[in-house]
Amino acid sequence: MARPGTASRLSSDQATSSAATRQALVEAAIGALRDEGFAGASARSIAARAGCNQGLVFYHFGSVVGLLLAALDEVSELRLARYSTAVGGARGPSELVRVAADIFREDLDAGYVTVLAELIAGASSTPGLGAELAKRLAPWTAFAEQAIRDALVDSPLGTLLSGPTIAHAIVALYLGLDMLTQLEADRRPAESLFAEAQRLAALFEVLSATVPDPKEKP
Asked: 54 by DSSP, 3-state: which?
């Protein structure tokens, strides 16, 4: 006869094991997308990376696409937290550009944007995937808009440069620049672009000292 509490302990152990398997599959999916691309991120290859049966992909996520979207969600959550910390102390255009350049290098080194890029590539042949990706990009546009507003809070130019249109353009530029840099296997153009942006940011800071604040009445 089992001692009181045995069943609950087993249930707790099973839940822990299930959560660990799920996390292992998510991490394996991230690696598969980064190293093998969308075409190579099959249930078999991901399960092999995770060291489990491929049937667990469908048990935990319903489909391979469901797992790949969970992998993107994991990367997005981690990077949004990192970006928020990085830009939290940025004040002024120059500081914001410097932070952007730093996290751009981090993303390239770790291949984070590759996960999204491979899913975008797979969206053309996977019904419904494109819409799911579009929903997951929305928080990035909102983040970019808030980061610009916070960094330029003391500048009259903040009113001119903040807003969803500018934020959307920045997200599109960032993603496109990352993809192009990986395609060309050459970081120098991107580094040059950030250097030019740094010079423009310095110019904006000079201009902000002479542009009247639209919030102030004459």
From this structure: coil
Residue owning tokens 């991901």: 46
Q: What is the DSSP letter of 62?
A: S
Q: Average of pLDDT values for 100-119?
A: 92
Query: d(Cα 76, Cα 70) in Å, to the nearest integer?
Result: 10
51 contacts 92 by C-beta, under 8 angstroms: no
Q: What was the pLDDT predicted at 1?
A: 44
Taking the CA atoms of 144, 145, 146 and 150 in sequence, report the sign of the dihedral they define. positive
| Distance of alpha carbon 93 from alpha carbon 200, whole angstroms | 9
Task: Indicate the pLDDT class of residue 202, thresholds 50, 70 and 90.
Answer: confident
Which among 145, 123, 201, 140 has a CA at the least distance from the CA of 175?
140
Please tell me the distance from the alpha carbon of residue 188 to that of residue 179, in angstroms, as a whole number.
14
Nearest to 69 by CA among 80, 57, 81: 57
pLDDT at 74 over 90: yes
> Alpha-carbon distance 107 to 110, whole Å?
5
